[in-house]
Amino acid sequence: MAPQTKLWEFSVANYETTDVVLVGGGIMSATLGVLLKELEPSWNIVLLERLDQVAQESSNPWNNAGTGHSALCELNYAPAATDGTVSTSKALGINEQFQVSRQFWATLVEEKKLKDAQWINPVPHMSLVFGDAHSKYLAARNEAFKAEKLFERMQFSTDPEQIRQWAPLTMEGRDPSVPVAASWSPEGTDVDFGALTQNLVNYLVSQGIEVRYGQEVTNVTQESDKSWTINVQNRLRKGDSSKIRAKFLFLGAGGGALHLLQKSGIKEGKGFGGFPVSGLFLRNTNEATADLHNAKVYGQASVGAPPMSVPHLDTRYVNGKRSLLFGPYAGFKTNFLKQGSLLDLPRSLRLDNLYPMMKAGLDNMDLTKYLIGELLKNQESRVRSLREYYPEAVGGDWELITAGQRVQVMKKDAQKGGVLQFGTELISSADGSIAALLGASPGASTAVPIMLRLVQQCFPDRFSTWEPRIKELVPAFGTKLNDNPQLADEIMSHTARVLGINN
């Protein structure tokens, strides 16, 4: 490990100074905070959260799918080519990333830096499709993945009785004349990212990191010495404002990160825009019903739907209680955060992103049509969608909840002018003094590899001295488990044992 030295030292009158400021109290800031504290214990870190608790936006368990995205069941990560062949590369990459997150979490549990792993539970992951064409695709997907180490336990069936054993609620009352096909992966998980975030933040506090609530960052400005001045407004005490100087600044504020990235003025942030999509879910908290379903069942996305809108019937564990969740249904509001302002979208418009956003919008008219269709749905039509996956569902047993806001990234593109970017986008300045994270799924599940990439990009001169500790935290760091079967067995069985998710 590198000598425990300050990132830098200076004193400025009327300014508070610190080494690192993390904006946003979600899984990303919490993960980066723990990682930096493990690599440089002497650095002073301040975490600023605009609400009165951490993990109340995208990391809140009711605001995300909690799937533990490992591409075992998400069909959009394994597209079929025009000739019917299925590519495994994207799914493999996402699974590898999730294995990195699992290793990091397991090490923290093993070193007693997280008190337990009750925020992760074993829940098999399934894909379920209907009709001959989709069944043919799922069979081709299964064939493509058979040779991949990380997917070797995945099973495939077109037998209704076998599928009934895997997920009884999906088959009871189903029309037997409609062909069905399913894949089933026993190593799937459900993750309560809200509880995990709180655990990570509790550890940070125990290490002397200050977490400040009700603190809204209103502006960020780079100084001549490359440090950043962060203007902060106290939302809990009107008129109370402050300024912090930090050498490194991370904008991990979910949908709120785009505005701050724009205010930073860095050239790497030019041309980025965001399009907000609201999420709605149907929730059933009847434990008797939840006990009849132990799976995360993902289907095929509707035409024009973004990847995060793939329908799924999930077993969820939130605060230790089991329930069912179905959705998502899309909506549209112009706020970038669930507890944000309806002016967020218009305020994000800039001369440098107007053209890319218009081009991306024109090239994705099917998304617009999809959103209009979703907005026209009522409770009855939502329950009809639910019954495609749970034929005997009783509408009155399900309540409609509003999930988090997702801001789809739009960015400039040399060839198309502008593109809609699904997934997450890590943006950092050339001098490594600031980084921002935009985007959505698979997000939280891949927080650890994303933050490792950030560390490598922003601190290249320190990375080699940090690498030994990184390899303690992530034992297979830099290695693809899918290409190393023996190591994969060792790592995956070890993390499963430590996290209590043997399945």
UniProtKB/TrEMBL annotation:
Catalytic class of the enzyme: oxidoreductase
Pfam families in UniProt: Mqo
The protein's Enzyme Commission number: 1.1.5.4
UniProt GO BP: tricarboxylic acid cycle
Pathway: Carbohydrate metabolism; tricarboxylic acid cycle; oxaloacetate from (S)-malate (quinone route): step 1/1
Keywords for this protein: FAD, Flavoprotein, Oxidoreductase, Tricarboxylic acid cycle
Catalytic activity: (S)-malate + a quinone = a quinol + oxaloacetate
Molecular-function GO term, any one: L-malate dehydrogenase (quinone) activity
Cofactor: FAD
HAMAP family, sorted: MQO
Family: Belongs to the MQO family.
Name by which UniProt lists this protein: Probable malate:quinone oxidoreductase
